[in-house]
Amino acid sequence: MNGNIILETPRLLLRNFEDKDINSFIAYRNDPEVAKYQSWDIPYPETAAREFLEYMQQAKPGTLGEWYQLGIALKSTNEIIGDCAFCILAEDGQQAEIGFTLSRQYQGKGYATEAVTCLLAYLFTEYKLHRVRANCDSANIASVRLLERLGMRQEGHFVKSLWFKGEWVDELWFAILREEW
């Protein structure tokens, strides 16, 4: 697949990261409420942000077993307000895992639903995937509700299965099949 992706929704662009995105990216990555359920720690340094953006600018979408992230930008300003990611599983190439992050000031406005709906459509049409899955901390109610709104079914609840940021947490796993999409 081509490395330059631009997906459109009524209000958003899902697009490759650009150098000008650095300040917005650092800002939401350093928000304690945004980082709470994410894999990175805060403070999230500018050097890490620059390395990440450079890496993503060289990455190829759809490389089996490797995560690929797209910025979520407002169509009106092209400002990055979050990101979404996918990883096509190396085991079979017919399934993927997704993830998403949204700046706190844009949460609760339907942007995440719009972006992840677009990402799922892209994965099911462009890659002809059989199944897409996602997981989240059971305490992350906003993400649980989003995944349910997208029509993803909860397939598992793993009790205190993940050592995360100094404590054992429950993981919820969701999935949707192409024919259900």
TrEMBL record:
<feature type="domain" description="N-acetyltransferase">
    <location>
        <begin position="12"/>
        <end position="179"/>
    </location>
</feature>
<dbReference type="InterPro" id="IPR051531">
    <property type="entry name" value="N-acetyltransferase"/>
</dbReference>
<protein>
    <submittedName>
        <fullName>GNAT family N-acetyltransferase</fullName>
    </submittedName>
</protein>
<dbReference type="InterPro" id="IPR016181">
    <property type="entry name" value="Acyl_CoA_acyltransferase"/>
</dbReference>
<dbReference type="Pfam" id="PF13302">
    <property type="entry name" value="Acetyltransf_3"/>
</dbReference>
<dbReference type="InterPro" id="IPR000182">
    <property type="entry name" value="GNAT_dom"/>
</dbReference>
